[in-house]
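Ex. 9. Protein: BrnA antitoxin family protein.
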Amino acid sequence: MNKPEEELTLQLHPRPKQTVSLEIPSDTLESLKKVAASRDMSLEALLRFYIGQGLRQDLAKLFSNRILEATAQVLARHIQSEEEISDILQEIRSQTSP
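Predicted structure tokens for BrnA antitoxin family protein:
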């Protein structure tokens, strides 16, 4: 049986990083600083968090769209009616939307 400390070991794999610069409106920057302070985070950590969160959401949407496209292609090989395929895809979308 694993010791409790073995189960909680976090192993990070460093990834190459690049520095980017971007212009942010001053009022937005001040708001970001306030939010970062309220979360006890650095501004950089908050920005990375927001970017990561948005990126994960967008990648999930892209993956979902690829799955729906593949599903449509498979259905088209087995079902002749475009209307029926559309109805099936719409049903899948409605059951998997947040």
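Check your answer against this statement. The chain is about 70% helix and 0% strand.
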